[in-house]
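Render this sequence as a predicted structure.
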Amino acid sequence: MSLNTLSYPAATGTADWHLVALHGWGANAADLAGLAPYLKLSHFAMTFPDAPHAHPQVPGGRMWYGFPWGYDFRQPHDFERQGDLQTSRQVLKDWLLDLAEISQIPLERTILAGFSQGGAMTLDIGGQLPVAGQIILSGYCHGRLNSPITPRPVMMVHGTFDPVVPIENAYEAKDALQAQGQPVAFQAVVMGHEILPSVISAITAFCEDLRQGRGGTEP
């Protein structure tokens, strides 16, 4: 299974790095692609894929996997048993490997980002691939995290008043990453389930720091 995508060239210069961003539940590639003009990333191609599954309630919406009825992130749920998550994992991993080959930009120069459910997929799949870094926006863990195959910095941003994914879920994810020895730059921002202009600036700084070899781990 392939993924439909929206792609944007580098703002300046030749694209020798890649930013891949995964949308949240019920959105689609266009949701995060709207950030591309504001990121103004030099030397970064940007690609925004649609999740594999159609959303059952939102026309044109996509999802990486479904939630049980009434799920509010506050009670445990075994997502590992869901076939739609297993499918998305395999499709996303294969697609990222293919993207590196097609674009001629290796995963070692690719930053994987995600918002909400896309952030959960970034936490899940990112560690299985040798990406340069990960960006988790309003995200959470939907299962146990495996140790990453290569070291990489992780940027996490979460709203202190997020009405969808409680910030406690973000702290749990941060703790899980740090327990694996991953460097995490965590920012709790006074906002809801959203991406503010200040967060866009932080994303740009994180990506450019990594490209220029500065590590990208300072909050």
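Summary. The mean pLDDT is 94. Strands lie at 5-8, 17-22, 44-49, 53-54, 62-63, 110-115, 133-137, 154-159, 184-189.
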